[in-house]
Design brief:
single chain; 437 residues; mainly beta; 31 strands
């Protein structure tokens, strides 16, 4: 296993960790990089795993399930590049279904499904559906969508389906256009390989859906120029599988005087939002992000999740050397639809222990969030308390692959997360969960 940049820092000379927190008594929290930073706020220090797979706090344990390459049926194996995931009620008492993305284009361990579940035969991405019992044991699995590309993250709908997002605007060899959102029924009854074109064609990351209005908030990970934060308002207030198929209006967020979110470095800062209609959501001639000039952008817009009446969304990092307005190693924002404002909740300063937050879920324990790290060197699951104090929940002790698909079971007993590659694997983490203040 390679020695990471942060591993050297922990074992050697002290460096500065700077994490700014919304609502804290100090705007910057600093300590030495050699200390077990923030773990007093969580479940305690991480205990080295004797198997060298996953370090967790004392009292917690994990199970590995649905590993890339595992046989499912004749000619079908678990696809690779595990990514965004959500949980749903299972088909049996006390069981949970997971729908999981596979972030592959025309590469990786192919997602194979029947033709009625396959969009483009040239694309290797898709989704898998797993069923597990209340203790995190795998009961069954199958490929639930195939022929899609670069399925990164997505979002859960209020009517109990999964929106899987393609993070691409096309690739070599495609037979159909890509850059869409598809809807997957965890029960396998209504899934069709049909893009939800009204939600736009762009390098999608994730979706957070307001359960009351069914408005969807979408992130875009793109550059030259940077991506946008979108709002999709459905035409019909149906609240079922056909809600987004019926069409609607796609808009992009504009914050006056804030052309780049990275310029905001003070947690607790709040800004009024305006929404600008996207002229051509299908991007037939011009990418959606290039259709608007007076707009707010961000480098690396990634995970999104709905919780506490707000849409949470993540910016993984910003580099001035890449054209960003300022440097940071991660931001967590919320959008409040009632006040029509965004607020910076947390920012990771460069050079600290944590960097590159990606997938996000809202924790049922204490009102904080759980973040999957996709940064330099060793990778963590990062938790926060309800006062936005961060701590290490887990560490990938096996390799430097990113964490993805962080999500809790509906009863809160199991935290699921994926190691994306080397090979891809889904973890079921259990332990003494409790409310974090």
């Amino acid at each position: 296993m390679s020695v990471s940049r942060r591993g050297v820092m922990k074992g050697g000379a002290a460096g500065a960790l700077s994490i700014a927190l919304a609502g804290s008594t100090e705007s910057v929290f600093q300590t030495s990089a050699g200390a077990d930073v923030g773990e007093a706020y969580g479940y305690g220090p991480l205990v080295p795993d004797p198997k060298g797979i996953l370090d967790l706090p004392k009292g917690f344990s994990y199970k590995m399930l649905s590993i890339e390459g595992d046989p499912i049926s004749p000619g079908v194996v678990v696809p690779g590049h595990h990514d965004g995931t959500a949980t749903f009620p299972g088909g049996r008492p006390h069981t949970t279904r997971l729908v999981r993305n596979h972030e592959q284009s025309n590469n990786g361990t192919r997602a194979v499904a029947p033709s009625n579940l396959t969009y483009d035969p040239a694309a290797n991405g898709g989704t898998s559906t797993l069923e597990v019992d209340r203790n995190g044991n795998l009961l069954s699995q199958y490929v639930s969508l195939a022929g899609t590309s670069t399925n990164c993250a997505g979002g859960r709908t209020p009517w109990g389906t999964w929106l899987t997002c393609e993070e691409t605007e096309g690739f070599t060899g495609e037979t159909k256009s890509h850059g869409w959102v598809f809807e997957v029924d965890p029960r396998g009854r209504r899934t069709k390989p049909v893009p939800l074109t009204a939600l736009g064609r762009f390098a999608h990351e994730a979706v957070a859906v307001d359960p009351h209005t069914h408005i969807a908030y979408l992130t875009e990970d793109a550059s030259k120029p940077f991506g946008l934060f979108y709002r999709f308002t459905p035409k019909a207030h149906r609240g079922d599988y056909h809600t987004y198929l019926a069409g609607g209006t796609l808009e992009a967020m504009y914050v006056p005087d804030v052309p780049d979110l990275s310029a905001v470095q003070e947690p607790g800062k709040r800004f009024r939002v305006q929404w600008v209609k996207v002229p051509d959501p299908s991007a037939a001639a011009t990418s959606t992000r290039k259709q608007l000039e007076k707009i707010t952008r961000s480098q690396k817009l990634e995970g999104a999740w709905w919780g506490h009446g707000k849409a949470y969304f993540v910016c993984s990092y910003s580099h001035k050397s890449d054209g960003g307005a300022a440097d940071h190693a991660g931001q967590v924002w919320t959008y409040d639809p009632h006040s029509r404002t965004i607020e910076l909740q947390l920012v990771f300063k460069p050079g600290g222990r944590f960097d590159g937050p990606d997938n996000i879920t809202v924790s049922p324990y204490g009102g904080g969030v759980m973040l999957a790290e996709d940064g330099d060197g060793e990778q963590h699951l990062i938790g926060t308390t309800r006062h936005n104090k961060p701590f290490a929940m887990a560490r990938n002790a096996f390799n430097d692959s990113e964490f993805t698909g962080v999500t809790f079971s509906l009863d809160g007993r199991i935290l699921f997360a994926n190691r994306q590659e080397g090979p891809g694997v889904t973890f079921a983490i259990t332990g003494p969960w409790h409310r974090l203040h």
